[in-house]
Amino acid sequence: MKKLLSVFTVLLSAFMFVSPVLADTFEKASDTSVNVFGPLNQYEGIDSANWGSSVPAVATWVHPSWPSITGATWISSAVETETPRNNTWRLFSDTLNLPECAANITGNLIKVTSDNAEEVYLNGALIGSDGEVQTTPVDNQEWSTVLSYPLNGLTVGSNSLKTIVRNYASATDDPHANPTGLIYRVEATYSLSDRDGDGVCDGTDNCISSPNSNQADGDGDGVGDVCDNCVAKANTDQADSDLDEVGDVCDNCVNVSNIDQADIDKDGIGDVCDRDNDNDGVENEIDFCGSTSLPTLDSSLQFTAQWGVHRWHYDGLNWIQQPNPKGKLSGQTFNIQDTYGCSCYDILEKLKSAGLGQFGGHYKYGCSSSILSDFHLDLSDGVLDGSYLIDTVTVNSKLIGGVNSVVNLVSDMNYRFDVTGTWTNRAGETVDAKYTTMNNWGSYVDAPAGGFPNELLDLQINNGFVDWGTYSAAHKYSRAFAGNGSTVNFRVFDGDVATNTPNPGWYGDNNGSLTVNIYAEL
Fold first, then answer.
1. What's the rounded Cα separation, in Å, for the pair 449 and 312?
2. Would the pLDDT of 214 be above 60?
3. Which of 212, 231, 277, 508 has the most crowded CB, counting CB atoms within 10 A?
4. Are 498 and 453 in contact (CB under 8 A)?
5. CA-CA distance, 347 to 289, in Å (whole number)?
6. Domain count, the chain
7. For residue 428, which of 449, 451, 447, 445 has the smallest C-alpha distance?
8. pLDDT score of 200
9. SS3 of residue 110 by DSSP
10. In 3-state terms, what secondary structure has residue 434?
11. DSSP readout, 214-241?
């Protein structure tokens, strides 16, 4: 048989799968959508202008010996060969469109079988040929062989597939004796790389982890707004030193995590970094009203009458005292540090909440000097409880004479002694201000073993026995005391209870101390 049989089959192997979008398959078979140029009576390159204009391919007459390919159609420039007696060349042009999201295109093959000769080009590059397309023909029945060509250069988007087919001349005018045609099928398996499924390929998606089909990027830094840790300012590197999901260029506290970006005083410094959150001049550690909006101030609307004589209010900058009708002041001064960042209204609310009074007159006319002074003293130990710490005494159990307070307790002023701690002796006893145990407080007694009086080993005040109350597992006991104008003495008593005489020989084996905090009651 003198007829050229050109059978062209393309197989594109699978691509690496890119999660999480499904793998897909591209298929393209020869049909009448292919464009064909010619026939020409001489060879021309694929880009030659001599090919002229193309026409749509047609389904050509099929010789009984030609193989079939599933889904593909034998095509040519005409149903029957126009000039079967002559050498003729035809150029077939097709386009292979792979999705923009196709990724990892590797290991592709094109399988070709033909009768006589063909040249195959992908994107302008020759990828294989069989037979004599340009030289003197030798009919080796190439249609019976199948060759594999590497399909290098297949990319996403549009790919040009062109085939030049030569039909050898034959000593006949019968088109059925020397037919011509082309058949092929292209298959490509690939992975769509669109992790967030927003229709924008990962390679161009400015936020591959969250859907954003509109690709909004307000600051123009190449990071989509839905992924950008700082939408208002460009930050391509997305630096986030404290890992709080707020980019450093936007973060009001770069080195301390604060995802809420709280900034009560609106000074641009996050509260977790701001040493004075409310900008009242009192640092957070000692600001008892640090969460109030600023400036902290008293408004006349908060009070039910005009400011009273010598009453105080805070105007946001200073404590102001109302003068008497003659314009005179009391001579006292206060600042916002004295009141731990609190205004008069704040102070009254804090005192009332602590159960320290109702202060009706102060809500009406403003704060008195004594209220401000007492509030300052009360909070000097960090606790608002109607008292303030004035001295701490460490009572060594070895000291027969006990230990005196440093401060004098003012006459007619009330105080509270809080005692804590335990000590031990050679007899294996552990003792607190009143109670004794021999088994690590599994059980306890008011008096040491051996029939001794209850008062033995108790903590004395001014050399006198006192009742420290019921047992405390925390070993903390309290006792009220009225000041007498002098210091106060605390002593662990170890001696003759009946005569209240300490025994010097008994103190030597005592170890440890008790701690007494002295509070002045307001």
1. 60
2. yes
3. 277
4. yes
5. 9
6. 3
7. 449
8. 87
9. strand
10. coil
11. T---TT-SSS-TTT-S-SSS--TT---T
